[in-house]
Design a protein that fits this description.
The complex is a heterodimer of chains A (about 120) and B (about 110). With about 120 residues, chain A is an all-beta fold. Helix content of chain A is about 0%, strand content about 50%. Chain A contains no helices and 11 strands. Chain A has strands spanning about 5, 10, 20-25, 35-40, 45-50, 60, 70-75, 80-85, 90-100, 105, 110-115. In chain A, strands 2, 4, 5, 6, 9, 10 and 11 form a 7-stranded mixed sheet that branches. A 4-stranded antiparallel sheet of chain A has the order 1-3-8-7, with no helix packed on it. Chain A starts with a strand and ends with a strand. Chain B has about 110 residues and is mainly beta. Chain B is built from no helices and 11 strands. In chain B, strands 2, 4, 5, 6, 9, 10 and 11 form a 7-stranded mixed sheet that branches. Chain B has a 4-stranded antiparallel sheet with strand order 1-3-8-7, with no helix packed on it. In chain B, a hairpin with a 2-residue loop joins β7 and β8. Chain B is globular, with a radius of gyration of 13 Å. The chains are: A mainly beta (about 120), B mainly beta (about 110). The interface of A and B includes residues 47, 49, 59, 106 and 107 of A.
Chain lengths: ~120, ~110
């Protein structure tokens, strides 16, 4: 069955960096784009952007062009979200989701940024 | 960016009742290819969002026919009939006609 399994929760200090993984199984990884979505505590869903799993080309929504990096390890069917120079407002759950119509979602990775 | 306005913000429904959620777009969601990429999701407490309806009115695999979507252009509606306890949570509309994708702010469905 199709699964997206994300890495575990992270506790970081402001200014640090982190990298979240999203490992796909149950389908051919390069057949579908991978989307990333942010959900701050108690808030709604915010679209971050997507990565073309065939070419590796990322596309970022405006709010996520500066410190956010999408990448792939195609041989491992894994997508990554890296966040640099973490800020308190990056505290959120981050989801990966498969496809141009995001039909399958990872379980989410909770990131807490606190000094 | 396209703004999706969902109403109401919250909905109190009795078990077995019917719920209706509106999603209005700041611009037409008809793509140049003729398709309309407006989708509906349910996020149950503590879970990831799940796709209910794609392209306005198509139920995703395994979604019961109690869920129906309709609309065109800029106005869309999700209806849930015979509400059951597992339908509770926050409903979101998502458009992917225009880049970047955007979500509505969500509608919380609660039991009366």
């Amino acid at each position: 069955q199709i699964q997206l399994v994300q890495s575990g929760p992270e506790l970081k200090k402001p200014g640090e960096s982190l990298k979240i993984s999203c490992k796909a199984s149950g389908y051919t990884f390069t057949d579908y784009a991978m989307q990333w979505v942010k959900q701050a505590p108690g808030k709604g869903l915010q679209y971050m952007g997507w990565i073309n799993t065939q070419t590796g080309k990322p596309t970022y929504a405006d709010d996520f062009k500066e410190r956010f990096v999408f990448s792939l390890e195609t041989s491992a069917s894994t997508a990554y979200l890296q966040i640099n120079n973490l800020k308190n407002e990056d505290t959120a759950t981050y989801f990966c989701a498969r496809g141009t119509t995001p039909a399958y979602w990872g379980q989410g990775t909770l990131v807490t940024v606190s000094s | 960016d396209v703004v999706l306005t969902q109403t109401p913000v919250s909905l109190l429904i009795s078990l077995g009742g019917q719920a209706s959620i509106s999603c209005r777009s700041s611009q037409s969601l008809v793509h140049s290819n003729g398709n309309t990429y407006l989708h509906w999701y349910l996020q149950k407490p503590g879970q990831s969002p799940q796709l209910l309806i794609y392209q306005v009115s198509n139920r995703f695999s395994g979604i019961p026919d109690r869920f129906s979507g309709s609309g065109s252009g800029t106005d869309f509606t999700l209806k849930i009939s015979r509400v059951e306890p597992e339908d509770l949570g926050v409903y979101y509309c998502l458009q992917r006609t225009h880049n970047p994708y955007t979500f509505g702010a969500g509608t919380k469905l609660e039991l009366k």
